[in-house]
From TrEMBL:
Membership in a protein family: Belongs to the PPR family. P subfamily.
PPR repeats mapped onto the chain: 29-63
Pfam name, any one: PPR_2
InterPro entries to which the protein is assigned, alphabetical: PPR_P_subfamily, PPR_rpt, TPR-like_helical_dom_sf
PROSITE patterns for this protein: PPR
Highest taxon listed in the record's lineage: Eukaryota
Name of this chain's protein: Pentacotripeptide-repeat region of PRORP domain-containing protein
Length: 552
C-alpha cells in the first residue's frame, strides 16, 4: 500500500495501475482501487477512472460507499459537458450501480453504518450542469422520505444548487425554469414536514443560501415567497411592522448577501435598507466582527440609488451614514471586509448626483481622496489660492477620482443649481486632470474593482464632457464669477469647454446610444407604483396552488 500511495502521490497513475493489477489477488483490496480512482479523478483522467471501476468488478471486488463517492465526486469536477456524452452515460451507470448496492445493503441490514446518501450530492450537481432537470425530479421522488436513505441537509443543498441554471436558455428572461421553482417548493414543504417530525433534522446556512439563490432568480411571486417563508420565518428578519419568530438558522455573510440580492431583485429597496439597518444596529460581543461586508453594503447603496430614482428624499444623507459607519467599524473592528472601496464611494456620489446634494458629494469626496473640498471653494479673485494638500493615510485609504467618480461629482454640482458649487466642481475637475477625463482610456491603468466598469467608460467620458460644458456655460453667465475667479482661471474654464466640445464631436456614437449601467437607465417608477405591483403579486399568490412539475 505504501508503494502504491507513493506512485499516486507522484501522479504516476499508469505505474500504479500496472502494479495493482499485476499483484496477487489476495493482496488487492477495494481501498486500493479507490485510491487509484481518486488519483485518476485528480488528474482528470475520467476514462481511466471508469476502467478501474469496471476492472475491480470484473475481478470480483464489490464497490463500497467510498468507491461511488470518489467516482461521482470526480465526475462532478467537470465544468463543460457539451462534448462528454460518453462520460454522461458512465455517470448514470455508476449511480445506478450505487442505488442497487445501497438498496441491497439496506435490505440486508437496515441499520448498517455504511448506508449513505453522499453520492446523491455530486450526482445532482452533474444533472444540473447537464440540464437534466426532469431526471433530478425523478431521482428525488424515488428517494426515501425518512430513514438513513432520506435526503439530508447536504444532499438537499446540492439539489437546490443544481436547480439554478448557470446559463440562460435562448429567449428566456429568467435564469430559473418555472418548473424548477415549483419543484423546489415541493421539496421545501417536505423539508418542513421532516423538521416537524424529526427535531434532529435542522437547516443550516449552506442550505438557506442555496434556497435564496434559487428563489431570487424566480418570478416576482417566487421572490415574495422567499422573503416571507425563508427570511422572516427561518432567519428572523422582519419587515417593518412585523414581528419575526426567533431565527432557526444563524445569519452568515453569505446568507445576508443573498437576502440583500433577493430584496434588490424584487425591487424591494426599502426592505434591503431595512434589513441592513437591523444588522448594523445589532450589538457585537467583545472580539466579534460584523457579518456585513463592503460587498453587501455596496448592494445596499445600490438600493439607496434606486430609491433616489423613484423620487425618495434625503437618500444621499442616509447613504453617507452607511459610508461613515463602514469607515468607523473598519477602524474599531480591524475588519478589512468593511473597508470602503472605490466603487463604494462611487455609489454614494451617484446617489448625491441624483438628488443634487452637493454637501454629501463634497463630504464623500473628502473621505475618498483625503483632500478637502473646501480648499476648492470660492475666495475673492484678488486673493492668492493656496495649493490643496492631500491628507496622508495608511496605504490603500486614499482614492483619487477616475472618470466615473468625476462624472458623478460634476453632475451633482450641475444638478444642485448653485453656481458656487459649479465653480468649486470645476476647480476640483481641473486639479485632478481636467481634459483627461474626456478621454475614453482614463481607467486603463486602474487595478481596482471599478475596472470591471470600463465597458461603460465611453458613456461616462462623454457624459462628463457634456456636463462640464454645461457647468462652464452656467459659470460664465453668472454675474459674480469675476469676483471669485481670476482671468487665468476663467480662461482655463473656457479651454475646458472647447476641449469638451471637441471630444464630443470626435465621438463615434452619440451619448444616448452608448452602453450604460442599469442604474443609469430608465427609472423603475415611483414607490407607489411598486406598492401597487406588490398588491397584485400578493393577490396572485393567494390564488395559486403550489404543485410539483410531476409527482409520482
Amino acid at each position: 500500500m505504501g508503494r502504491l500511495k507513493s506512485l499516486c502521490d507522484g501522479g504516476r497513475l499508469q505505474e500504479a495501475v500496472d502494479m495493482l493489477l499485476n499483484a496477487p489477488l489476495d493482496a488487492k483490496r477495494v481501498k486500493h482501487f479507490n485510491l487509484l480512482m481518486k488519483t485518476a479523478s485528480t488528474l482528470a483522467k475520467y476514462s481511466e477512472m471508469y476502467n478501474l471501476f469496471i476492472e475491480m468488478k470484473r475481478r470480483g471486488f464489490i464497490p463500497n460507499a467510498g468507491t461511488y463517492q470518489t467516482m461521482l465526486g470526480g465526475y462532478a469536477q467537470i465544468e463543460d459537458w457539451s462534448h462528454r456524452t460518453k462520460q454522461i452515460a458512465q455517470v448514470h451507470n455508476v449511480f445506478e450501480n450505487y442505488r442497487s448496492w445501497v438498496t441491497a445493503l439496506k435490505a440486508e441490514d437496515p441499520k448498517s453504518l455504511h448506508l449513505t446518501v453522499g453520492p446523491y450530492n455530486p450526482y445532482f450537481k452533474i444533472l444540473g450542469a447537464t440540464k437534466q432537470y426532469e431526471k433530478i425530479y425523478d431521482v428525488y421522488y424515488d428517494m426515501d422520505q425518512d430513514g438513513p436513505l432520506s435526503p439530508d441537509v447536504k444532499v438537499l443543498t446540492g439539489l437546490f444548487d443544481a436547480l439554478v441554471e448557470t446559463k440562460r436558455e435562448p429567449g428566456s428572461t429568467q435564469e430559473i425554469r418555472p418548473q424548477n421553482i415549483s419543484f423546489a417548493k415541493v421539496v421545501w414543504r417536505n423539508m418542513t414536514k421532516k423538521m416537524e417530525a424529526s427535531p434532529e433534522f435542522k437547516l443550516d446556512s449552506h442550505l438557506i443560501r442555496a434556497v435564496l439563490r434559487l428563489f431570487r432568480s424566480g418570478s416576482a411571486a417566487d421572490r415574495i415567497f422567499a422573503l416571507d417563508v425563508i427570511c422572516r420565518d427561518n432567519l428572523g428578519l422582519a419587515k417593518p411592522g412585523e414581528t419575526a419568530p426567533p431565527p432557526k438558522v444563524e445569519l452568515t455573510e453569505y446568507i445576508v448577501n443573498q437576502v440583500i440580492a433577493l430584496c434588490n431583485n424584487s425591487n424591494k429597496f426599502r426592505l434591503s435598507i431595512h434589513f441592513a439597518q437591523q444588522l448594523m444596529d445589532r450589538p457585537l460581543k467583545d472580539g466579534e466582527s460584523s457579518i456585513l461586508t463592503h460587498y453587501i453594503l455596496e448592494d445596499v447603496l445600490y438600493a439607496y440609488c434606486n430609491q433616489e430614482t423613484m423620487g425618495s428624499m434625503n437618500e444621499a444623507e442616509r447613504a453617507l451614514n452607511i459610508l461613515d459607519w463602514m469607515i468607523r467599524q473598519n477602524a474599531l473592528q480591524y475588519n478589512d471586509n468593511l473597508a470602503p472601496r472605490l466603487i463604494t464611494f462611487s455609489r454614494v456620489l451617484e446617489i448625491s448626483w441624483r438628488g443634487g446634494d452637493w454637501g454629501v458629494a463634497t463630504r464623500t469626496f473628502d473621505l475618498m481622496t483625503g483632500y478637502k473640498a473646501a480648499d476648492f471653494a470660492d475666495i475673492p479673485a484678488d486673493v492668492k489660492r493656496s495649493t490643496p494638500q492631500m491628507e496622508r493615510r495608511s496605504p490603500g485609504k486614499n482614492f483619487l477620482p477616475t472618470t466615473i467618480q468625476m462624472c458623478h461629482l460634476v453632475r451633482t454640482a450641475l444638478n444642485s443649481g448653485v453656481v458656487a458649487n459649479m465653480r468649486q466642481a470645476l476647480r476640483i475637475f481641473v486639479h485632478f486632470g481636467g481634459e483627461r477625463f474626456f478621454l475614453q482610456g482614463a481607467l486603463q491603468n486602474d487595478t481596482l474593482p471599478e475596472v470591471a466598469q470600463t465597458r461603460y467608460l465611453p458613456f461616462y467620458a462623454q457624459t462628463t464632457a457634456e456636463t462640464v460644458s454645461g457647468l462652464v456655460k452656467a459659470v460664465l453667465a453668472a454675474a459674480d464669477t469675476e469676483q471669485v475667479a481670476g482671468k487665468q482661471e476663467i480662461e482655463q474654464w473656457r479651454n475646458l469647454m472647447t476641449a469638451a466640445g471637441q471630444s464630443l464631436r470626435q465621438a463615434t456614437v452619440p451619448t444616448p446610444l452608448l452602453r450604460r449601467p442599469v442604474v443609469e437607465q430608465s427609472r423603475l417608477g415611483t414607490s407607489a407604483q411598486l406598492d401597487r405591483e406588490d398588491m397584485v403579486i400578493d393577490s396572485l399568490m393567494s390564488q395559486r396552488t403550489q404543485v410539483s412539475p410531476r409527482r409520482k
